[in-house]
Input
Amino acid sequence: MQLKGIEAVSVVDQIRCDRCDKEVHRTESDFEQMTSIGFDAGYGSIFGDGNRVEIDLCEPCLRATLGTWLRVLAPWSIDQMPLWQVWTAVGRPLPIMDSQNPGRFMHPYRVLTVQEMADHLKCSPEAVYERAHAGEFIFLSSPDRVDDQRYPAFQLDERLDKSLLKQIIQKYLEADVSSTLLWSFLRSPQKIYAGLTAIEMLLGGMPPQYDTLTPEERADIFLDVVDEEISRVRW
Ligand SMILES: [Zn+2]
Output
């Protein structure tokens, strides 16, 4: 038995850039783009032992001050594979086979070039572009070269629920939310899926409480989560 009470929680409501004084409220889209650094200086620190060091910067000021040293990476070079060990440990669907190296598994969060996609699908790179632009595949564009695209490899997995994937892509297109944000959503463990990622769900993974549901009911729940995610990142 749990007895519930209500407690006030303090949240950051507004952030002011320390360099240009620009103020952003949490309901504004720029809010997510503010960078906050804060740490307690350690022993022997040049900031003085135990002092608190803080700064909040908007994106233009972050680039103006630290830009020379910032590492801006394409979405596919971000090393984000948190669930890999969990996946194997709990007997989730097996990763994708790498046809180039039979016996070796292709990482489910790996991305492919258009040529690799074309080789797998036995079609031309142009045909891959066309299918991607028709909303059949997700593709990611490099931050500095739009024509440099990568395709998440899980889309070639035969266990993929293709119709569900198409519906997700369609929702993101309609909401005008970037495929980079879609890619990051797909790889994040979701509480409502008992810690599985959307990719794992698309490949047939299922939390125990979904056992009694029909495939349509599962799809509905899945798409509700997608809608929620879109409204969260969109503002
Ligand atoms: Zn600023």
